[in-house]
C-alpha cells in the first residue's frame, strides 16, 4: 500500500521555494537599514529602505501610472516577439538554405546594442509608443527564434525515421513531432524574452525620455536624477525590479508541467 501521509505545508517544496528567498530578502533589507543608520549615510547617497518606501508612498500615483505604461510597452513587445520569433523559427526548419542565409543577420540584430540603435528608431518612427515597442521587440525576439529553432530540430532521429516510414507529410511531422519537441525550449525562451522585453522597454524609455517623453518609469528615474531625488530613483528601481520578478514568476509557472510529452510512437518503440 502507498503511504498517503500528506507532507506538512511548511515542508512543501513550493513553500520552501518562496520561504528561503523571502528570508534572504528580509535579511538584506535589515542589513541595509542597519548599515545606513549605523554609518549615518545621507539619503542623497544611499537612502534607507524606510526613506525609499516613504518616497514611494508620496509619489505613488505618478509612479504607478509610469509603471502601467512601461508594462504596456513590455507586454506588447513580448507578444510581438513571440509571434515574430515563432514564425521566423519555423522557416529555417523547413529550408536549410534559408537558415544559412538569414541567421547571421538575426545574430547581428541581437549583438548590436539596443542603446546604439534606439535613437535612430525613435527618430525614424514618429509615434513615440510604437518606437518604444520596436526597440523592446528587437531586444526580446532573438531568444524566441534561437530556442524555438533549436527545439524544432531536437527531435529524436528514431521518431523522425518512424514518421518518414509512415509517409507522414512535412506538415504532419511539424505539427505532431517537431512542435511538441520544441515546447520545453519555447517556454524556456519565454522566461528570457519576458525579462528582455522589460529591459528593452526601459532602455528605450531612457532614450525617449531625454527628448521629453515623460511617460514610463525610466523617465521618472531621469527626472529624479536631475533633481537629485535619490529616494525616488530607488523607488522607481524597486518597481522595475518587482515587475521583472513578476514576469519571471509568471513565465516559470506557465512552464511548470508543460514539458514536451513523450510521443506515443516512442513509447511503442521502447517496448
Automatic annotation (TrEMBL):
One of its GO terms (biological process) is transmembrane transport. GO terms for cellular component: plasma membrane. Its main location: membrane. Residues 67-251 form the ABC transmembrane type-1 domain. Keywords: Cell inner membrane, Cell membrane, Membrane, Transmembrane, Transmembrane helix, Transport. It is a multi-pass membrane protein. InterPro entries: MetI-like (IPR000515), MetI-like_sf (IPR035906). The chain crosses the membrane at residues 18-41, 61-90, 102-122, 128-145, 185-210, 230-253. Pfam families: BPD_transp_1. It is found in: Cell inner membrane; Cell membrane. Belongs to the binding-protein-dependent transport system permease family. PANTHER family: ABC TRANSPORTER PERMEASE PROTEIN (PTHR30151:SF41), ALKANE SULFONATE ABC TRANSPORTER-RELATED, MEMBRANE SUBUNIT (PTHR30151). This is ABC transporter permease. It comes from Klebsiella pneumoniae.
Amino acid at each position: 500500500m502507498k503511504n498517503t501521509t500528506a507532507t506538512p505545508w511548511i515542508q512543501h517544496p513550493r513553500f520552501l521555494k518562496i520561504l528561503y528567498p523571502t528570508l534572504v530578502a528580509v535579511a538584506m533589507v535589515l542589513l541595509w537599514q542597519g548599515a545606513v543608520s549605523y554609518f549615518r549615510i545621507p539619503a542623497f547617497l544611499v537612502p534607507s529602505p524606510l526613506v525609499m518606501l516613504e518616497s514611494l508612498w508620496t509619489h505613488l500615483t505618478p509612479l504607478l501610472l509610469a509603471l502601467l505604461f512601461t508594462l504596456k510597452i513590455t507586454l506588447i513587445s513580448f507578444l510581438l516577439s513571440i509571434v515574430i520569433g515563432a514564425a521566423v523559427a519555423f522557416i529555417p526548419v523547413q529550408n536549410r538554405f534559408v537558415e544559412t542565409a538569414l541567421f547571421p543577420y538575426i545574430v547581428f540584430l541581437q549583438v548590436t546594442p539596443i542603446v546604439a540603435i534606439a535613437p535612430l528608431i525613435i527618430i525614424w518612427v514618429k509615434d513615440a509608443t510604437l518606437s518604444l515597442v520596436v526597440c523592446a521587440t528587437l531586444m526580446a525576439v532573438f531568444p524566441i527564434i534561437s530556442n524555438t529553432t533549436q527545439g524544432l530540430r531536437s527531435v529524436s532521429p528514431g521518431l523522425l525515421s518512424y514518421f518518414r516510414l509512415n509517409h507522414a507529410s512535412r506538415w504532419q511531422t511539424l505539427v505532431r513531432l517537431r512542435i511538441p519537441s520544441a515546447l520545453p525550449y519555447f517556454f524556456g525562451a519565454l522566461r528570457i524574452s519576458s525579462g528582455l522585453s522589460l529591459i528593452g522597454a526601459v532602455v528605450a524609455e531612457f532614450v525617449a525620455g531625454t527628448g521629453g517623453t515623460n511617460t514610463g518609469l525610466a523617465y521618472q528615474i531621469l527626472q529624479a536624477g536631475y533633481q537629485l531625488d535619490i529616494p525616488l530613483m530607488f523607488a522607481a528601481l524597486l518597481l522595475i525590479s518587482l515587475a521583472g520578478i513578476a514576469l519571471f514568476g509568471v513565465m516559470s509557472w506557465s512552464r511548470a508541467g508543460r514539458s514536451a510529452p513523450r510521443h506515443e510512437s516512442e513509447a511503442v518503440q521502447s517496448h
